[in-house]
Amino acid sequence: MSAHQDQVRGFAKYNREFNERLFAVAAQLSDAERRQDMGAFFGSIHATLNHILLADRIWLGRFAAAFPELKSLHDAAVVTRFSSLREELCADFADLHKERIATDQVITAWAAELTDVQLAATMSYRNSRGELRQHPAWIAVAHLFNHQTHHRGQVTTLLSQLGHDVGVTDYFAYVQ
């Protein structure tokens, strides 16, 4: 196994474990608190968590199309058509949490299945504006995990503003 494959698997582990911690803290809030527009890019904690799930499923759909041999994505809930990056997948927080867990399981299996050949291969897809994109798959993999981290950072800030500490967020804490 290559260092790049190890890195992808480590990111998947971090993603799964940190999402669980984040959802556990968010579950302590009322629905009104989770839906309160606090000025973040997607407004609320709920909307931001929903966006992360939507984007993950969009990327998984792109990977499924680019690499149909990836068995981990055959029966996965992926998104291939969407009207907006603000599209709500789950109105209910418990459903959002359940779907987050399911998608994190898929991401973990997908990360374990990715090969160096696939990571180096060129992916072709259309972005949300319909523009054709082509680049090595490893760039999309890096983006998927970086995107999650970026928006989870926003959620941790919002939770902190509401008086809730999610604890250590460092990658090292989750992969060692």
If you consult CATH, what is the topology?
Four Helix Bundle (Hemerythrin (Met), subunit A)
Give the rounded overall mean pLDDT.
94
Q: Determine and state the CATH class.
A: Mainly Alpha
- How many strand units? 2
Amino-to-carboxy terminus distance: 18 Å
Please give the count of helices.
7
The second-level CATH architecture is Up-down Bundle
Work out the radius of gyration.
16 Å
Largest sheet: number of strands, sense, barrel closure: 2 strands, antiparallel
Strand line-up in the sheet with most strands:
1-2
In N-to-C order, the SSE pattern is HHHHHEEHH
Let me know the CATH homologous superfamily. dinb family like domain
- Based on CA inertia axes, which overall geometry fits? globular
Instruction: Report strand %.
Output: 5-15%
- By secondary-structure content and strand pairing, the structural class works out as mainly alpha
Q: What percent of residues adopt helix (DSSP H or I)?
A: 55-70%
The number of domains: 1
Low-confidence stretches: none
Mind explaining what this structure looks like?
The chain is mainly α. The chain has a single domain, classed as Four Helix Bundle (Hemerythrin (Met), subunit A) (Up-down Bundle). 61% of the residues lie in helices and 6% in strands. It contains 7 helices and 2 strands; from the N terminus they run αααααββαα. It has a two-stranded antiparallel sheet. Helix 3 packs parallel to helix 4. It is globular. The model has no long low-confidence stretch (mean pLDDT 94).
